[in-house]
Specification:
Length: about 240
């Protein structure tokens, strides 16, 4: 029997999650070894959580309760309400230590009521900085990425706009260049530094000053993080 423990973190209104020590989900050994996090969004695990299908076993805890699963681009997808829904990935030292990466997922916009809606991000520090982040504006649904440059968050508005259809988004970082791909095709790139620490990886929101902010309203599916910058052909394959 698997033991689940949920503890309310004093003063911040979030949940910490301990899956116990008697095992976890059976990993998919057919997945590539450089895929370090994978949420297909096809099922909700015990304890209002999402289970990582890679051997790294990164459990992610939903705020209060998990959003509903609805038909997605590949099987089911997580439908976030844009108001309070989000998911926090438990401490992940291997992700904290990344020097190169690819973040990829499918997104479809629904009700967006905030000035911005963030689909995924790795928090840096205790204020409003991020190691990486992919968001969209409310007014135009323009995609932008964000990352700490040593002095401030450097928001990169890319001139690509989401709508009510499914779109595949991916960013890669090779140690110098951040590249954005939309629907499998290269879109834009920039030079940026990389700052990582042990703060949260969140899905469906941003954290500013340790509180959720900029909730995303819509569906997310097939969320992946690789420990290297995938090649353009590999990104195109994910978007099929």
């Amino acid at each position: 029997m698997r033991v689940w423990l949920i503890v309310l973190l004093a003063g911040c209104g979030r949940f910490a999650f301990d899956p116990g020590s008697d095992g976890g989900a059976t990993p998919d050994v057919s997945l590539p070894s450089d895929l370090v996090l994978y949420y297909p969004m096809d099922e909700i695990a015990p304890g209002n959580s999402l289970e990582d299908k890679t051997p790294y076993g990164h459990l992610a805890v939903c705020w209060i309760t998990c959003p509903p699963l609805e038909p997605g681009i590949k099987g089911m997808a997580l439908h976030l309400d844009g108001v309070q829904d989000y998911v926090e990935v438990l401490p992940a030292p291997d992700i904290d230590a990344l020097t190169t990466y690819t973040v990829a997922f499918w997104a479809r916009v629904d009700a967006q009521t905030n000035a911005a809606g963030c689909m995924i991000g790795k928090v840096f520090g205790t204020a409003d900085a991020n190691s990486f982040q992919i968001c969209m504006t409310m007014a135009t649904q323009q995609v932008f990425t964000s990352g700490w440059d040593g002095a401030m968050n450097d928001d990169f508005y890319v001139g690509y706009y989401l709508d009510a259809s499914w779109h595949h988004l991916a960013i890669t970082y090779d140690g110098t260049l951040e590249r954005l791909y939309t629907d499998g095709a290269f879109w834009k790139m920039r030079v940026r530094p990389l700052y990582f620490d042990t703060h949260e990886l969140v899905i469906g929101t941003d954290y500013d000053n340790s509180a959720p902010f900029a909730h995303f309203g819509g569906w997310l599916d097939d969320v992946r993080i690789y420990n290297r910058a995938l090649a353009p052909a590999e990104i195109m394959a994910l978007a099929q």
